[in-house]
Each structure stands twice: as structure tokens, then as C-alpha cells.
Amino acid sequence: MKYSMDRLVNCLKEQHISVTPQRLEILKNIISRYDHPSADSIYQEVRRHLPMISFNTVYKTLETFCQLGLITKINPLHEVARYDGNVAPHAHLVCTRCHKVEDFDWSWPDDIPLPDASPEGFKIESVSVQFFGLCQQCQQQ
Ligand SMILES: [Zn+2]
Ligand SMILES: [Zn+2]
């Protein structure tokens, strides 16, 4: 489930965050993609439309969007953070060879309930599911 641009722009306004051309361009980019791009990948595409934008701005904007819950961040082990415009609970298929990340429509908490009792001193807030393996292309190589 992805939010529409209208909805996202409204969210920014509600949070009193000004809707700048930079923020709009970054939002448009992440929402239109299904490849779970890294901040750098988003930066490379956004700068084609906004040559003056800096990587730092893109990175900080993505982090702000995450904090607002407009997008999510996934962190395959030992890799840079990747961003996801799909905010519905879903699992990911992570290729260990080419690092491609695909959505896998398998949801919780029905499938994976959060434990009622947390380990001592730890407050469980969410669960993320990543399955590691080889994508179709990498299997054929
Ligand atoms: Zn692969
Ligand atoms: Zn995803």
C-alpha cells in the first residue's frame, strides 16, 4: 500500500513541513519505484531534475519522511539502508548476490504475532521479515 501524492502532500502540511520542490521530487521518486532504492540511488535520479540538490538534503529528507511514517526503511544486513514507499506490512525477498530487494506479499501480525512478553529490558515495537536467497536471474548464472 502506497500513499498517493495528494495524501503525502497533505501529511506534510499537517505536520507543518513546507512542501518544497526538493521534497516533492524526492517523494515522487520513492513512490514511483518498486526497487527499494538506496538514498544514493534516489539522489542520482532526483538530481537530474534538480541539479543543485545535495546528497545530504536527499538523505535528511528521506529520514524525515521515515519519521513521519510516509515511507519505511529496510536494512538488509551489512548493506546500506534502502527506502520503501510501501508502508503496508510486507516481507522482503533479498538476493544475497545482487542485493535486489523485492516485495513479498506476506503479512503479519496474523502470520507472525509479536510476542506478548518481551525479553527482559527490551521493548518490542515492530517486526520486519526478510527472506534471503537468490533471485531468478542470479540462479540462472
Ligand atoms: Zn540476484
Ligand atoms: Zn517493500
TrEMBL record:
Q: Please tell me the species this chain comes from.
A: Desulfobacca acetoxidans (strain ATCC 700848 / DSM 11109 / ASRB2)
MF terms (GO), sorted A to Z: DNA-binding transcription factor activity; transcription cis-regulatory region binding; zinc ion binding
CDD domains tied to this protein: Fur_like
Q: Would you identify the family this protein belongs to, as annotated?
A: Belongs to the Fur family.
Which SUPFAM superfamilies does the record match to this protein? Winged helix' DNA-binding domain
Listed cofactors? Zn(2+)
The name under which this protein is listed is Ferric uptake regulator, Fur family
Q: Does the keyword Protein biosynthesis apply?
A: no
Could you give the cofactor binding note from the entry?
A: Binds 1 zinc ion per subunit.
Keywords, alphabetical: DNA-binding, Metal-binding, Repressor, Transcription, Transcription regulation, Zinc
Tell me which residues bind Zn(2+). Answer: C95, C98, C135, C138
Q: Name one GO biological process term.
A: regulation of secondary metabolite biosynthetic process
